[in-house]
């Protein structure tokens, strides 16, 4: 699952670093389910683990599903959630995983950096367009 945290017309992205996967590319806060975990619990957990944000279970809404295939041909389906950032409720976003992430930064949703990971770009585009299902990396 992936989180589009918005502050006005900006989205929060993390610059991957030191993982061996999509390093030096901007990515949405995201993660995988742990055994026995529901997707909402995973979203709340990953937001806290990656960016130190305290999301409440009922505030993020699912905005899209993206079926992405990377350049090696591996594919995954991501559930994309959006939440409006509220500093008083959520706390200040921080880079909680410096061993996986060089920094976090807000970007205009319509002007993502050129080195945004294609999966992230597809998720943001689906959210902006209101497209409930988007294919990315498929011909």
From TrEMBL:
Pfam families for this protein: NUDIX
Coiled-coil ranges per UniProt: none
Annotated Gene3D superfamilies: Nucleoside Triphosphate Pyrophosphohydrolase
Record has rRNA-binding as a keyword: no
Keyword Protein transport attached: no
SUPFAM superfamilies, A to Z: Nudix
Entry superkingdom: Bacteria
Record keywords: Hydrolase
Domain Nudix hydrolase: 1-129
Cofactor: Mg(2+)
Name assigned to this protein: NUDIX domain-containing protein
Record organism: Micromonospora maritima
Lineage, top ranks: Bacteria, Bacillati, Actinomycetota, Actinomycetes, Micromonosporales
């Amino acid at each position: 699952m992936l989180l589009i945290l918005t502050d006005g017309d900006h989205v929060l992205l993390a610059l991957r670093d030191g993982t061996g996967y999509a390093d030096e590319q901007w990515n949405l806060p995201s993660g995988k389910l742990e055994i026995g975990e529901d997707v909402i619990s995973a979203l709340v957990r990953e937001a806290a683990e990656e960016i130190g944000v305290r999301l409440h279970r009922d505030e993020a809404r699912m905005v899209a599903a993206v079926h992405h295939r990377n350049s090696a041909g591996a594919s995954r389906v991501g559930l994309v959630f959006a939440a409006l950032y509220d500093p008083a409720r959520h706390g200040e976003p921080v880079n909680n995983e410096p061993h996986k992430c060089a920094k976090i930064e807000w970007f205009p949703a319509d002007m993502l950096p050129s080195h945004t990971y294609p999966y992230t770009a597809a998720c943001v585009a689906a959210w902006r367009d209101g497209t409930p299902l988007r294919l990315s990396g498929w011909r």
